[in-house]
């Protein structure tokens, strides 16, 4: 399966290159002896804002973690900004940003927001932050509306604020391409709205974004393209799910992104080649997982 | 007063005090990374393996007819500790065996190997006691030189590479996405932790070596809010308890290692007892806006025991829930 698309925004590489920012060919990934991803081929072009959708276990996070070089491919190639990510040497790491799921960080010893964000300035061959680190950290925190929490211990912050710290950590290096793994998970409506503002700014700046989502929520208006994964394969590549009519950032529907959401229904429909659902978004249902 | 002058003018005590200061500074630096990585017991595992190294050094020294027989004990401990630390890091990274099972292998194998080899070297377990429980009073000038060199190395790496070592200890997956040489940095932490164990071996003994790496960090993380402050405070606490413990044993015939560790535990208990008072005062000082993650949103859930929604107490109760999401 090979899908290539031109940049929908028409944005061009400042260097004049029209090469894809992310180019994946015939990718397969195994975890624990099982094949998690198979036959993945895709290209992401400069300025695209791509949502990666699909049910739990469909392989979304595995794909993003492979794109960033955390997981090794079993087969195929992954090139980011023209470099083979598996070789590590020669990869322009400083131009790539990554926001992992919040649970990847350990918290044995307290760390302040500034300390965590500063760590985002390191790279291969740069084991200490650069001289302008303070200014870059301040700028990154302003972009996520957390400048006033700079010297707080991260553990003191709410879950949504902790997520914004991780985003600031990725933004500190001013990445050209940003990969995010479920940034809305466990994040309340106010923090989701703040996150959406940050992401809108990045889109305006021409940053290429690939974000794993359970539902598009407040990001829906920004998304230029949706990829839907099912059982480790891409089953839809194209139109994003439609933004909810009368979308409101305070809509409590977003409070439980793992719920049986409208976008998951949409993704399921894409997976089975059906029509888009027309479910009533305003209804708040109580599910075993909580409010949905 | 004259007793103190006498104590500080004793060459034996001078060497012991220098060793105590070096260990007090260096051990908590690596302990901070181990606690951050949730590998607090790694030092113990390495300590047990180092005992095999001590015995092996003794065996080789004996075979070479060196005097004293344990001249190669510290080099032997360094080699064994480094091999053990790297082995456990490889096991941890591959995820084939859980971390605690790998540590258990080191614990039992290290002690058994040490006792077995010291027997082959013609010695008895009594020869190992100084290494198991510390023998700072017998630190020779050459021992001190080795301790100072290793201590300087530990401090140089632990503090000089703090940004990178923090990044890899705080979030290994993210560190990998930065392009950092994660495997190399992990190996460096393991090797330097092993060196720390051998530095601290003479002061507190291999059985208690991990305590002087971990307890000062456990004390300081109760009050510090940043990684850097935790490390600095832990270094201060480390020096304080090591020197105090040593001075106490000058006046009372007690084991320095045991006194140092008991002192550290007493400080931990004292700080834990006082901490709620400090934290409550700090919270009372802080305005609600400084703590409430969503100051513009009224609280819509009341938790038993919390005060009116919108007050500082209400905010605190909400925060206690959300911070652990």
TrEMBL record, chain A:
Q: Which UniProt keywords apply?
A: ATP-binding, Nucleotide-binding, Transport
Ranges of compositional bias, category Basic and acidic residues: 246-283
GO terms, molecular function: ATP binding; ATP hydrolysis activity
Which residues, by range, are in coiled-coil regions? Answer: none
Transmembrane annotation, as ranges: none
PROSITE patterns, A to Z: ABC_TRANSPORTER_1 (PS00211), ABC_TRANSPORTER_2 (PS50893)
Kindly give the Gene3D superfamilies that the UniProt entry links to this protein. P-loop containing nucleotide triphosphate hydrolases
Q: Where is this region: Disordered?
A: 235-292
Q: Which Pfam families match?
A: ABC_tran
**Domain ABC transporter: where?**
22-256
- The protein in question is named Zinc ABC transporter, ATP-binding protein ZnuC
From TrEMBL, chain B:
Residue stretches spanning the membrane: 12-34, 41-60, 72-91, 103-124, 144-168, 180-197, 203-221, 233-251, 257-278
Which top-rank group of organisms is this from? Bacteria
Q: Which UniProt keywords apply?
A: Membrane, Transmembrane, Transmembrane helix, Transport
User: What GO biological process terms are annotated to this protein in UniProt?
Assistant: response to zinc ion; transmembrane transport
Q: Which SUPFAM superfamilies match?
A: ABC transporter involved in vitamin B12 uptake, BtuC (SSF81345)
Tell me, in one coarse class, where this protein mainly resides. membrane
**The name this protein goes by in its record:** Zinc ABC transporter, inner membrane permease protein ZnuB
Q: Which organism is it from?
A: Serinibacter arcticus
């Amino acid at each position: 399966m090979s899908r290539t698309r031109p940049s929908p925004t028409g944005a061009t590489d400042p260097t004049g290159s029209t090469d894809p920012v992310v180019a994946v060919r015939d990718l397969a990934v195994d975890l624990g002896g099982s094949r998690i991803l198979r036959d993945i081929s895709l290209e992401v072009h400069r300025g695209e804002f791509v949502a990666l959708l699909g049910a739990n276990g469909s392989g979304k996070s595995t794909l993003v973690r492979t794109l960033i070089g955390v997981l090794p491919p079993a087969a195929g190639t992954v090139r980011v900004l023209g470099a083979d990510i598996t070789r590590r040497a020669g990869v322009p790491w400083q131009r790539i940003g990554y926001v992992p799921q919040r649970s990847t960080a350990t918290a044995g010893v307290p760390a302040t927001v500034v300390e965590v964000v500063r760590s985002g300035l390191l790279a291969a061959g740069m084991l200490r932050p650069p001289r302008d680190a303070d200014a870059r950290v301040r700028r990154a925190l302003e972009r996520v509306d957390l400048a006033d929490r700079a010297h707080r211990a991260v553990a003191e912050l709410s879950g949504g604020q902790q997520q914004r710290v991780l985003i600031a950590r990725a933004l500190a290096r001013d990445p050209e391409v940003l990969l995010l793994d479920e940034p809305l998970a466990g994040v309340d409506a106010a923090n989701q709205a703040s996150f959406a503002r940050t992401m809108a700014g990045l889109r305006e700046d021409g940053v290429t974004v690939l974000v794993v989502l359970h539902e598009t929520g407040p990001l829906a208006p920004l998304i230029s393209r949706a990829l839907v994964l099912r059982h480790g394969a891409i089953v839809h590549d194209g139109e994003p799910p439609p933004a909810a009519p009368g979308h409101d950032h305070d809509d409590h529907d977003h409070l439980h992104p793992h719920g049986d959401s409208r976008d998951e229904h949409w993704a399921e429909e894409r997976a089975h080649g059906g029509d888009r659902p027309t479910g009533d978004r305003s209804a708040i249902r109580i599910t075993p997982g909580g409010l949905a | 007063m004259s007793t103190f002058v006498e104590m500080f003018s004793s060459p034996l005590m001078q060497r012991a005090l220098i060793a105590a200061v070096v260990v007090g500074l260096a051990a908590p630096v690596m302990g901070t990374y181990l606690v951050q990585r949730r590998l607090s017991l790694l030092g113990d595992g390495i300590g047990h393996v180092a005992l095999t190294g001590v015995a092996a050094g003794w065996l080789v020294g004996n075979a070479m007819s060196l005097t004293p027989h344990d001249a190669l004990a510290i080099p032997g401990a360094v080699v064994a500790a480094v091999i053990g630390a790297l082995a456990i890091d490889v096991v941890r990274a591959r995820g084939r065996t859980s971390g605690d099972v790998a540590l258990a292998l080191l614990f039992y194998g290290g002690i058994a190997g040490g006792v077995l080899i010291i027997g082959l070297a013609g010695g008895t377990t009594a020869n190992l006691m100084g290494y198991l429980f510390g023998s700072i009073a017998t630190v020779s000038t050459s021992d001190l030189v080795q301790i100072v060199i290793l201590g300087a190395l530990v401090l140089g790496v632990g503090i000089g590479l703090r940004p990178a070592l923090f990044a890899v200890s705080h979030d290994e997956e993210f560190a990998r996405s930065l392009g950092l040489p994660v495997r190399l940095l992990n190996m460096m932490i393991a090797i330097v932790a092993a060196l720390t164990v051998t530095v601290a071996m003479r002061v507190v003994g291999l059985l208690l070596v991990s305590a002087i790496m971990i307890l000062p960090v456990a004390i300081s993380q109760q009050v510090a809010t940043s990684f850097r402050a935790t490390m600095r405070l832990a270094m201060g606490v480390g020096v304080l308890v090591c020197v105090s413990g040593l001075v106490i044993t000058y006046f009372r015939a007690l084991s320095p290692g045991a006194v140092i560790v008991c002192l550290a535990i007493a400080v931990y208990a004292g700080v834990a007892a006082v901490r709620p008072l400090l934290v409550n005062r700090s919270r009372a000082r802080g305005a609600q806006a400084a703590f409430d993650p969503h100051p513009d949103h009224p609280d819509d859930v009341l938790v038993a025991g919390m005060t009116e929604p919108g007050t500082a107490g209400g905010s605190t109760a909400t925060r206690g829930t959300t911070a652990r999401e």
